[in-house]
What we know:
Order of helices and strands: HHHHEHEHEHEHHEHHEEHEHEH
Number of strands: 9
Shape: elongated
Largest sheet: 7 strands, parallel
Radius of gyration: 25 Å
Amino acid sequence: MAADEEDLERVARRYWDDGVTMDVIAREEAVSRSTVSRMLDAARAAGIVQVTVRSVHGRAAGLAAGLRERFGVDVVVEPVPDGATDLARLDAAAAATARLLDELMGSGMVLGVAWGTTTSAVARHLTARSTVDAHVVQLNGGANTRSSGLGYAGEVVDRFGAAWGAEVHQFPVPAFFDAVATRRAMWRERSVRGVLALQQRCDVALFGVGTVAAGVPSRVYTAGYLTDTDRVSLAEEHVVGDVCTVFLRRDGSWEGVPLNARSSGPPPPALRRIPRRVCAVAGTGKVPALAAALAAGLVTDLVLDGATARALMAHR
């Protein structure tokens, strides 16, 4: 190798491998900063340095294929810059989910929606279009000790109905009943039975996963739905998160979690009967809960941002 190429290699290694600035290299080499810049350009022109720009869309497709093979579900990975905020990741995943729903939903179909931070974001990205005899039904109750829940949960569901001209069916019951007996009694009411029957007719379900560790906090953990006693009980049961306000352990099991007997959300066997079950997730903090949902067989279609996809792929 000629001496000048050795000089180019040395400077190139200092800049690209060691991360040293051009100013520092210029002082080390006793040359000007502009000379260092020309040496770096020459190193690239001579093939000493090769810079490859990898397509984020290509990486996303590879991640989607890997997750699809591992978990047996359809996957959409939305590319998001590495430095993006949690809210930006949520917005990107929500937009991709809205596009998927536009493909899945049509006239004569029933969509079940579990209210939450993620599904609310999805609703903001829906494309308005006309449907005939389409229905949107709320999957879990929204009332808690602070409010009736109708304002927030109802608004989320209403956005889906407004976008598609679909009939909306709210579920005006508590997210969690105080007693199992109260839930059983309420489930015998004709108005409630009508909503439950429509839930069973769903062609598509939309939900996120809830967890206390998320960068964008899950609403069920921050809006007055859980008492201190509830939180202790969930910790004792090693719960990692929830789907439709039904709590899951790491392995996807849900039976025996006391709070689930008082939940208004569909238990996993009922949710699994819905043909297409779209789960939208953004944020690496949600990966343990997402892995539990996948272990429980609750997901057929998964939409997530790139960082969350990588974290899920690495999760064991």
